[in-house]
Write a structure and sequence with these properties.
The structure holds two protein chains of two kinds. Chain A is of the alpha+beta class. Chain A is 43% helix and 18% strand. Chain B folds into two domains: 143 residues, Aspartate Aminotransferase, domain 1; 243 residues, Aspartate Aminotransferase, domain 2, CATH 3.40.640.10. Chain B is globular. The chains are: A alpha+beta, B alpha/beta.
Chain lengths: 146, 407
């Protein structure tokens, strides 16, 4: 199977490979896929007090398209508000990387990873807020200021 | 000597034509172009003589009694089809039970599936992690209704060599016809149709440095005489077993390839085994968590099928694109299912996805092997640094305890 130039470029120079401490309250972690299916993506976001994604990291077990999809996702996430990040759709990733039909599932997985990381961050935040009512200034999720 | 890229290490899929084979074939395209079935002139006689010589040469390589036992086909897929469906057609009245193994080539498995649709019962004998069939499992599966046992000489993915002689003893004692798909093993591991009581054997030229599009089916003519229902109707060529004008240049090339194997096979096997072991040792020394799939002992000399834990096979192939190999990874097939051979050996699906098949052949050099070993080591390290599974494994997390959301 021939890969698109963009897949090859991301595969050979993956952006934002690495890990954040998942227990850090600023970090949201999404782990999706399964070893048995041949791809696992872990995507992490660092979110600031204004609900803006400041940084992103990934590690992926998978084929070139899966690695490229997650690399691209981390690039797109940086600087976006959580709401904006939620609008990233797999078709956008598939289109950007010119993924063939048999590789569309890689872009679906990347979208799932983004959603899962955002959910994780929101859950952690909600849990923290439930423990100690934070000052109103920090309640930025409803009105993101990107 | 400078290395020429990409390096070809997929010799189970096909092999380059040996230049000596090509040279032997060339006259049969132009000046000696006759139809081997033309009985009325010298063109035909010459072609027929060349084909008969070829039969004898091929027969000798497998120790068949006579060249008359060689039926030429378009390749091993056709040979497998002819053997299995041909026996079913001819002996179906005697019984409707066939035994094969779960690790056979699709040409055998799908021929058996076809028989099932026609009312035959097929037993698919399993294999353990060794990738080698236990002859006792074959013995247990044989019933009064069994007419055919089909087992490969060596597996095309993991290179494991099957106990053909032991199975041949069983089938002969029970009066069951024994077919062997010998495509991958021929000239690389001992194969003797008489000593091993083989009744039918599929052979292919392009796996042994011969041309594509030509193969043969060995059909035993005595003790017992094996009869087949022809699957291709027409001019009654090949003693009625397979109609169609013979591919004379291909057949001549096939025979030359067999002759070279007969003469050089033993030395070549040792050299190739040395290269395989060199590749394996280098990788093993540099990388932890490398699993050899299937028995290393009962294996073709040129085969190394290994799983690099926590690295996906297709991803790795992309990283080593200067090396032509294949993978049991799902991503290489449209079905998204990992290799049925590896799964039938009980391999964890994740490890099946992580497998790479290296197939070393006649034209590979030590320099190439060293280049490949260094490249693989380097890229596996890089991909493991990128793998969440590797990170978890290094942290002591048992990946099997995690609830994965399968998609």
């Amino acid at each position: 199977m021939a890969y698109s130039e963009k897949v090859i470029e991301h595969y050979e120079n993956p952006r934002n490979v690495g890990a954040f401490d998942a227990s850090d309250p600023e970090i949201g972690t999404g782990l999706v896929g399964a070893p048995a299916c041949g791809d696992v993506m872990r995507l992490q976001i660092r979110v600031d007090d204004h609900g803006v994604i400041k940084d992103a990291r990934f590690k992926t077990f998978g084929c070139g398209s899966a690695i490229a999809s997650s690399s691209l996702a981390t690039e797109w996430l940086k600087g976006k508000s959580l709401d904006e990040a939620s609008t990233i759709h797999n078709s956008m990733i598939a289109e950007e990387l010119s993924l063939p039909p048999v590789k569309i599932h890689c872009s679906v997985l990347a979208e799932d990873a983004i959603k899962s990381a955002i959910d994780d961050y929101k859950k952690k935040r909600a849990a923290r807020e439930a423990l100690s009512e934070p000052p109103p200034a920090l309640r930025t999720e409803e009105s993101p200021t990107a | 000597m400078s290395l020429k890229l990409p390096v070809y290490l997929d010799n189970h899929a096909t092999t380059p034509l040996d230049p000596r084979v090509l040279e032997t074939m060339l006259p049969y395209f132009t000046q000696d172009f006759g139809n081997a079935a033309s009985r009325t002139h010298a063109f035909g006689w010459k072609a027929e003589a060349a084909v008969d010589d070829a039969r004898d040469t091929i027969a000798r390589l497998i120790n068949a009694e006579s060249g008359k036992e060689i039926v030429f086909t378009s390749g091993a897929t056709e040979s497998d089809n002819l053997a299995i469906k041909g026996v079913a057609e001819y002996y179906g009245e005697k019984g409707k039970h066939v035994i094969t193994t779960v690790i056979e080539h699709k040409a055998v498995l799908d021929s058996c599936k076809r028989l099932e649709k026609e009312g035959f019962e097929v037993t698919y004998v399993g294999v353990g992690p060794s990738g080698v069939v236990d002859p006792n499992d074959i013995a247990k599966a044989i019933t009064d209704k069994t007419i055919l046992v089909s087992v490969m000489l060596a597996n095309n993915e993991v290179g494991t060599i099957q106990p053909i002689a032991e199975i041949g003893k069983l089938t002969r004692a029970r009066g069951v016809i024994f077919h062997v798909d010998a495509v991958q093993g021929i000239g690389k591991t001992p194969f003797d149709v008489r000593a091993m009581n083989v009744d039918l054997a599929s052979l292919s030229a392009h796996k042994i440095y011969g041309p594509k599009g030509v193969g043969a089916l060995y059909v035993r003519r005595s003790r017992p005489r094996v009869r087949l229902g022809a699957q291709m109707d027409g001019g009654g060529h090949e003693r009625g077993n397979r109609s169609g004008t013979l591919n004379v240049p291909g057949i001549v090339g096939f025979a030359k390839a067999c002759e070279l194997l007969e003469r050089e096979g033993a030395a070549e096997t040792e050299r190739i085994r040395g290269l395989r072991d060199r590749l394996h040792e280098k990788i093993n020394r540099a990388l932890p968590h490398v699993i050899v799939n299937g028995s290393l002992e009962h294996r073709l000399p040129g085969n190394l099928n290994i799983s690099f834990a926590c690295v996906e096979g297709e991803g790795l192939m992309m990283a080593i694109k200067d090396v032509a190999v294949s993978s049991g990874s799902a991503c290489t097939s449209a079905s998204l299912e990992p290799s049925y051979v590896l799964r039938s050996m009980g391999l964890d699906e994740a490890d099946a996805h992580s497998s790479i098949r290296f197939g070393i052949g006649r034209f590979n050099t030590e320099e190439e092997i060293d280049f490949v070993a260094d490249l693989v080591i380097n890229k596996v390290k890089k991909l493991r640094d990128m793998s969440p599974l590797w990170e978890m494994q290094q942290q002591g997390i048992d990946l099997k305890t995690i609830q994965w959301a399968a998609h």
